[in-house]
Amino acid sequence: MIDFLVIILMVIALVLFVLSRYQLGRTTKSMAAHNYAQELYNRVSKAHGAGKTKEEIIAMMKKDYGLDEDEAEYIYHRTPDIQKEDKS
Fold first, then answer.
1. Cα-only R_g, the chain
2. Does the pTM exceed 0.70?
3. pLDDT by residue (tens digit) across 6-51?
4. Does 85 have pLDDT greater than 80?
5. Which residue, 8, 31, 65, 88, is most buried by CB atoms nearer than 10 A?
6. Distances (CA, A) of 78 to 7, 25, 42, 55, 83
């Protein structure tokens, strides 16, 4: 009887371990996507601070990141520095 309970507990521990590894993989992918977006926003902010025009920044995003026109325009307007400037 005790052996049966130990086996069940070991199976439960194995299932929990596998699920935790799965969740860790999902979290890692999510963080990588976040870091990619943050890097993109930082480059747009840096280029904007260097005095580049909107068209130059969008062309840079299209070339370096393989974005199309609409995606680059969206990222450009979502950048915090650009949003502050648009409001004022």
1. 23
2. no
3. 999 999 999 999 999 989 888 877 777 778 888 888 888 899 889 8
4. no
5. 65
6. 53, 28, 11, 15, 7
